Amino acid sequence: MKLDFKSCMLYAVFGLPIFLLLFIGILYVANCGFSTDCSQASLPAIIHTPIPTLIPATLPSAGEVRPVAAQTKCTVTARTLLSAWVSAGYKETEPFQFNDLKGNTCQATFTDVMPLFTDANLWYSGALACSQCHHADISYASANMDMSSYEGVLAGGKRTSPEAAGEDILGGGNWELSKLNDMLFIDQQMPFGRPPGAVVEDGPTILAGVPIQVP
């Protein structure tokens, strides 16, 4: 049987809607079954994401008073700090006082002084630490002197053995007569290899100690 154009058009007009209805019906039945509310559907279980526990707020409540943060350190020159430490008897753990660049009365210990001997690039950019040359092996240390520890500084220079005391570099507590003052600030021979003008007159300015209230 040979189809003419008119017959083809009739099949297309009536057949296409039927095909679409069948296609939609197949999709619905395949996913929801023969129920109108999809109660017969075999869908995967829903996985609920739990709500995370909220982090407690850290801001203080109204009227709450927080403790004041730790005091800031004082700004002081190396000369002032060393002078105050030596003049106070150059103790290791007992505090000593000095006035910083802002006029504050401050308190420090030898822990604040030690970086002047052990920190590199402190006296000027590229400077070796004093303890780089004046180290614990006094047989090889420059001037047979150890500046890497409190005991070494007190033992002095030109020591003949680790057990022997050498020449006092702290002037017995008189800063103006001390070898340390002479080498660093009077004759300005140390730090070794300092370029001309690299170190200001009173040495580097550092942060040391804390301000105190004097009654």
Short overview:
With 215 residues, the protein is α+β, with helices and mostly antiparallel strands.
Radius of gyration: 42 Å
Largest sheet, order of strands side by side?
2-3-5
Q: In DSSP terms, counting alpha (H) and pi (I) runs of 4 or more, how many helices?
A: 7
How many strands appear in the DSSP assignment?
A: 5
Work out the strand percent: 5-15%
Mean pLDDT: 80
Order of helices and strands: HEHEEHHHHHEE
Q: Indicate the low-confidence ranges by residue numbers.
A: 60-70
Secondary-structure content class: alpha+beta
Terminal-residue CA separation? 123 Å
Helix coverage percent: 25-40%
Largest sheet: 3 strands, antiparallel
Q: What is the global morphology?
A: rod-shaped
Structural features:
215 residues, three-stranded antiparallel β-sheet, 8% strand
How would you characterize this protein structure?
This protein is α+β, with helices and mostly antiparallel strands. The protein has a domain at 74-211. 30% of the residues lie in helices and 8% in strands. The protein has a three-stranded antiparallel β-sheet. A two-stranded antiparallel sheet has the order 1-4. A hairpin with a 5-residue loop joins strand 2 and strand 3. The longest helix is centred in the N-terminal third of the chain and has 28 residues, at 5-32. It is rod-shaped and about 125 Å long. The chain starts with a helix and ends with a strand.
